[in-house]
Amino acid sequence: MTKLLIVLHHRFELWTAPAWVSEKLRQEFPQLEIVHLTSYDGIENHLRDAEIVIAWSLRPEQLVIAKKLRWIHSPAAAVHQLMFPELVNSDIVLTNASEVHGPVVAEHVIALIFAMAKQLPQAVRLQQKHIWGQEIMWRARPRPREVMGATLGLVGLGAIGRGVAERASALGMHVIATREHANKEKPFGVDEVLPITKLDQLLSRSDFVVLAVPLTNETRGLMNASRIAAMKSDGFLINVGRGPLVDEAALIDALRNHQIGGAALDVFAKEPLPPESPLWDLENVLITPHSAGLTEKLWERHYAQISENLRRYLAAEPLRSVVDKKKGY
Description:
329 residues; alpha/beta; Rossmann fold; seven-stranded parallel beta sheet
């Protein structure tokens, strides 16, 4: 009997698989032996004969004992924590949940665009002080602006980027994007695709820059001081990818000096963001606590993807959302 091991313990409740997930899977797939652990205690004993594992990560020494392992599914979009040589060079298939999180994070990006364009963080601060701030907000730089007609620069056209493009286009934004293979067909909503070598051009043309690329050796520190300097002086940087995509020290310096219009950040180099981080106190920064992917429907969405791929696996059909382990996404 094929064994499926689920081990998704996390300190944050939403990242821990609820009991109903494994119960429903047992009903739908009675031919599977399903083990659902609520902690990592005893995981090695179950790894020895597990053929499928659903987990955030595994360590190299754990992979060594998993002799029957054929498929790992990560409920995260980012899988850099699994990119160690033993797994990358193995025949084990790795899938991720980028298609689960993409539409939800894309909605969050649109919310951040509106928040920054309409100066909503400033309005909230003024409300807390009981200040009627109409004139204050108008005199601020950058001023409140329209979203329709603004240029959106997307760095990355994965599930998140495509979702943002579709929604931004519907709002009347001009969408330009950069990706590794610029000659591929343009996704719906994207007006122009540039090669990654022309990233500086995208930055200089965009009113809003959205980082939605995976974290790899090539993208770590992508937004350094020179790239931030390439942005418009009233442009906004939005990061919903991973914190290390941005040189935080360089960004803080640019924000302090009002070199760019502002930043909306959902991810950070260190999480939780330390209380002493200067980012907390910068008035041109909107911080959301890695909450872009939060939704009450999260595990319903996870279940739909997992069950479909299990059906495909058992039928020896190609899986969806397979990660290219050599590329890391």
